[in-house]
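Thread: Modeling a multi-component assembly for a lab meeting

Hi all, long-time lurker, first post. My supervisor asked me to bring a structural picture of a complex we are working on to next week's group meeting, and I have zero experience with this. I have the sequence lines for every component (476 residues in total). Could someone generate the structure of the whole assembly? Inputs are pasted exactly as I received them:
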Amino acid sequence: MTENLRDRGMDCALYSSYSSPIATVTLLEAAPAVSPALALTVAAAISAAGLAMLMQPGRRGLRLAGTVIGLAGFAMLMVEVLKRATAGAPEGGFPPVFPVIFGFLAMVGAVRMITSPRPVFAALYFILVVIATAGMFLLLGAEFMAFALVIVYAGAILITYMFVLMLAQQSPVAGEGDAWYDRVPREAISAVIVGFVMLATLGDAYFSPAAQRFRDDTSIVSARAGEQAAWQRLESMPKLLLETARKAEPKTAAVVSTNFDELSNRSKNATLKVTLDDGTSKDIALDAALLPENSRQVGVDLVSRYPAGLEIAGVVLLMALFGAVILARKQIELGEDERRGIAGMRRLTVDGEAGGSR
Amino acid sequence: MSNMMAQTINTLAVTDAQTVNAALLVSAILFACGLIGFLSRRNMIIMFLCTELMFQAAALAMIAFGNIHHDISGQVFVIFILTVAAAEAALALGLVVLLYRRRETLDSEAWSELRETA
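Re: Modeling a multi-component assembly
Sure thing. I ran the full set together rather than chain by chain. Output:
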C-alpha cells in the first residue's frame, strides 16, 4: 500500500514538473493521416537518397544537398520514432523524451560513422552510438547490460580498434589529406539501396499491425510470468531470500516456505511464511520493490539456465586469444611486393599507382 | 542520494510499449547503417567497425524483445553477443594488422585478386 502510494507520488511529481504542453505533440497531431508503414517507407526512401548523395566524394554541393535531404528524411524518421514514443502515453503526461534523445544520438552517430572519411573519427562516432544505445538499455530496464556495454565496448573493444588504427594508419602525405580509399566509397548507391531494403523489411516485420497486436498481447500475458520467474530466481538464492524477508519483517529468524510456484494464479500475491525470533510463525506479503536488482537477476539466469552457453563463451574467448597470438606472431620481414620483386615476379600495383589514377 | 538514484532508475525502467517500439525502430536503423557501411567502405578497419554496429543493433533488439516478453534471457543473450563481439574484434584486428604488413594499405580491394577469375 505505502509502496503503491509512493510510486504514484513519484509519477505525479515527474509528470507535474513537465506539465507544460510540449509543442511537438500538437505538431504531430496536425500531420496528415497516412498509414504508418507508408510514412516509414517514404521517410526511409528520402533518407536513403540523402545518404547516397552524402557518400559521393569530392563534390561539396552534392554533399551539402545530401545533408539537407538526409536531414529531412531523418526528421521524418524521428517523427515516426516520436509517434511511437508518444502514442498511448498518459493524457497530459510528459512525452517520453529520453527514447527520442538517445535514438537521435544513435542515428546521428551511425550515419556520421559510415560517412566520415577519417577512421579515427568513425571510431569516435561509434563510441557515441554505444553510449546512446546504453541509454536505451537503461530505459528498457537493463541496467547491468547498459554499464557492461559502456565498459566492454567503449572501454575495451573500441580502444583496441583505436590502437590498430594508429598502428596501421599511413601518415598522411602533406597536401593530400585522407587516403583515397577512405574518401571514395565502393558502390555507394547499391549499398544504400540494399541497406534501406533491409530497413523497410525490418520495419514491416516490426510495425505491421499484426506484429504490433501480437506484441501488445504478449506483453500483457507474459508480465505475470515474468514477475513469477523473478521471484523464483530470488528463491534460488536462500541468503538473499532471508535478507529480503528481513527487509519486510525485521524480526524474521528463518524462512519456512514461499508461494512463488503458485503465482501464475492471477489473484495471488507473493507471500512468505517465516518464523520470528520468538518462535511464532507469520505470513508476510512481499512487494515487487523487494525483487532482486537487475544485475543479480541476470547473473542467476546466466548460470542457472545457460551454463552450457557460458562454457562455450569461455571456449570462444580462449580460442580468440590463441588465434590473435598466432596471427600476431607471424613475422613478415618484407612487404610482399618487395619479395615478389626479388623473386623476379610481376610486382603488384597496390596503393601508389591505383591511388594516383582514381 | 543512492536511494534517490535507485528510485529514478526504477521510474525510468517502467517502460511502455511505445519506448519498446522506438527502441526497435532505432535498432533497425542502426542495423541498416551498419550494413551500408560494411558494403560501401573500403577501409578494412571501418568494415569491421560496421559489423560491431550491427552487433549493437542486434543487442538493442534483444533487450527490447526481452522487455516485451518480460524475460531476462534477452539481457543474458547480450552477454553472449558481447563475448562474440570481443572475440571477433581480437581476431579481426590481428588479421588486419597482418594484412596491412603485407600490402602496406588498409584498402580491402588490394586483396581483390583473391576472388574468382571472371
